[in-house]
Amino acid sequence: MRNDFKVYKVIAFTFLVTFVALAYVNQQALIYQMGLRIKENNQIHSNLVDRNRIMVYNVLNLKSPANLETKLLAKKVELGIPGKWQVVKLAGSPVKPEHEYVAKKGLFASLFVMGREAEASPNVNSLD
Amino acid sequence: MNKLIAPRIRKVLYTLLFLLAFLAIRLLFVQLGAAKPLSKIASDQYKTFICLLPKRGVIYDRNKKELAVSINLSSVYADPLLIKDKPSAARKLSGALNISESKILKDLTEKKRFAWIARKVSLDKERAVKRLRIKGVDFVKEPRRVYPNNKLASHIIGFVGLDDKGLEGVELMYDRFLKGAVGWRYTIRDAKRREVPGYEYKQIPPADGNDIILTIDSVVQAFAERELNNAFKKYNALGGSIVVMDPHTGDILALANSPSYDPGDINSSPAEARRNRAICDFFEPGSSFKIVTASAVLEENVLSQNDELFCENGEFKWGRHTYHDHTPHGWLPYKDVIKYSSNIGTMKSAVKLGKTGLYRYAKRFGFGEKTGIALPGEVKGILRHPRTWSKLSVCSISMGQEVAATAIQLACAVSSIANNGYYVKPRIIDSIQDKTGSVIKKFEREKMHRVISEDTAKEIRGILRGVVEEGTGKSAEVKGYFPAGKTGTAQKVESNGTYSHSKFTASFVGFLPYNDPMFTVVVILDQPRPQYYGGTVCAPVFKKVTEQMMRYYKIEPAS
Hints:
The structure holds 2 protein chains of 2 kinds.
Chain A: H1 2-63, H2 65-74, H3 101-110, H4 115-118
Chain B: H1 2-33, H2 35-46, E1 47-52, E2 59-60, E3 66-78, H3 86-97, H4 101-109, E4 115-121, H5 123-132, E5 137-146, H6 154-157, H7 169-173, H8 175-178, E6 183-188, E7 202-204, E8 211-214, H9 218-234, E9 239-245, E10 252-258, H10 277-280, H11 290-299, E11 308-310, E12 315-318, E13 321-324, E14 331-333, H12 334-339, H13 343-353, H14 355-364, H15 393-398, H16 407-418, E15 422-424, E16 429-433, E17 439-442, E18 447-450, H17 454-469, E19 484-493, E20 499-512, E21 519-526, H18 534-537, H19 539-552
Parallel strand pairs in B: 2-8
Antiparallel strand pairs in B: 1-6, 2-3, 3-4, 3-5, 6-7, 8-16, 9-10, 9-21, 11-14, 12-13, 15-18, 16-17, 19-20, 20-21
Helix pairs in contact in B: 3-4, 3-5, 9-19, 11-13, 11-14, 11-17
C-alpha cells in the first residue's frame, strides 16, 4: 500500500515536471512567434519607409525647376521671369479674388470656373 | 490487482532508471570530453553577426533644398543550386529586368550558391520579378545615391560608387562625415538561417551620416549652368566655367562647368565631362589679369589713374619682341589703358612698377596658391618666382601671359577689389549637421589679408565700371545695376611652345553694382569659335546671369 502510494507520487511528479516543461516550451514557441510577427511588421514598416523615400525622391525630381526647364526646353518652350516692362498693371484692375470666389458665383457658375481647382495646394511642399 | 500491477510498474521504472543512467553517463562523457569543440560547432551554426547599414547623409543647398539623397532599392540575387529550370528562369528574368538572357543564364549555370542578377533595380522591376515567383531568386536591400536635380551642381556634389563610397566632389571630400558608421547585431539564427527575433546578444545601432549644407543657391546655379551651356554650345567651345560668388563672405553661390554630367548615371558621359574645370584647369588669364597690374600700379603710386601713357599707336618694340594692341591708341590716361585693354600701356606701367612689385601683388591676390576651397583636385596655377623671369616676363605677366590661374582664383582676386581690398577665402560648405539638426562643424567665413587699400579698390572699381560703360565689356551692361568688369582674350599655347593665332581662352570677370558690389561673376570659355573675344562671348553670359539673379533676389534697379 505504502509502495503504491510512492509510485503514484513519482508518476504525479513526472506528470507535473512534464507539464511544466511543455508549458515552458510552449511559452518559448509563443515568444518566437511573436518575435517573428514583430520582425515581419518591422520589415513591412521598413519597406514602406523605403517606398516613401522613393516617392519623395520622385516628387523632388518632378518638381525640380532644373528638370522642368530641361523638359520644356526640349519641347522648345522657353519660360523666364517676366521683366517689369512685360507686366501691365491697369489702374482699374479688380483686386485679385480670394478663395470664396467660387462660392459667391453660385453653383451653376462654379461649374465653369477653374479657380479653386486649378490653384496649387499650399501644402505641396509638406511631402518632404 | 495492485499486487499484479506493482511488479510491472517497478520493471518499467527500473528500465527508465537504466535509460536515465545511460543518458547521464553519456552526458557526462560529452560534457567532460567533447564540450569545447561541440560547443564551438553549435555556436558557429546558430550565432551570427548581422551588419546594419547606416543611411548616407543628405546634401542640401543654402536654402535646404535637397541636392543628393539616399534611397534603398532592391538588388536581385539567385541561388543557382535551387533553380531547377535554369533556361526558363533566365528567359523570365530577362523579360522582367531587361537584361540579356544569355548573361543571366551564364550566371545561373555557375556552380555557386550566390549570383547577382541585377543591382539596385526600380520598384517596377522589383514587382515584376516578385510576380514571377521563381524559387531560388530573392532580394536584398541596398542603398542608392540619387540626385533629384540630375545634372545640377554635379561638379560640386560629385558622385558615389556602387558601394556608396564618395568618388568625386563633396561626396568624396566629406565622405567620412556623409557615410555614417556601420552598426551590427550579434544574434542567433534558426535552421533555415533566418534571424531569430528577440534573441539578440548585443547590438550596436548604425549611426546615420551627417547632412552637409552647401553655400550654393540652386536657383542661381541653374541660371549659371543654363547660360554657360548656351554659350558653350553657341561658340563651339571645348569647355567653360562660371563662378558666382558673394565677394564679402566668400560664399560660392554657383559654380558650374561645361560639359557637364549626370551624377546618377556617370557612365553616360565621358571622364572629360566630370572634371571640375573651375578648380582643376588653369589657363593664362590674358587681359583679365590687368586688374592685378593696375591695382599694384595705383597702390604703389607708380601712376595715378589720370596720368597719361603713350600707347605707341598700337605697335611697340621691346627687346627683340614687338607688342601689339588690338586697337591703336596714342596718349591715354591710365584708367583708359585698362578701359580699352591696351597691352602696350599696361606693360609700360608694369615696367615702371618692377618685377618684384608685380610678383608681390600677384601673390597677394592669391595667384600661384590654392584658394583652399573644400573641393578635391584644386590646382595652384602657375606664378613663377621673379628669379626665373626673363627680361620680357614683366611685360608678359602684366597682361596675363606666363601666368596661369584657375577660374576660382580669378573669382577670389576680383572679389578682393569688390570687397574693399580684402581677400576672402571661397566657401562652398556652410556647415555639417547631424540628424537632429545640431551643427557639428561650421565652416566660418574667413576674412583674410588686405591686398590693396580701400581707396585703390574704389579707384579700380571705377575704372572697371568704365570698361563696361565704354570699353571692351559693353556687352556685360545690365541697365540699372551698374556692373563693372574686365574682359580677357588669351592666346593658348601650342604644343610647340608658341602662342596660337587661332586658339584662345575668353574670359570676363566682373561684379555689380560697382559702388557696392553684391555679386562677383567669372565666366571662362575655352577655345570658343568663330568669335573668341571675352567681350563678345563671355560678357553676355555675365549679363544674362546677373539680370536673372537681380530679379530672383528682387533687387530693384537704380534709376
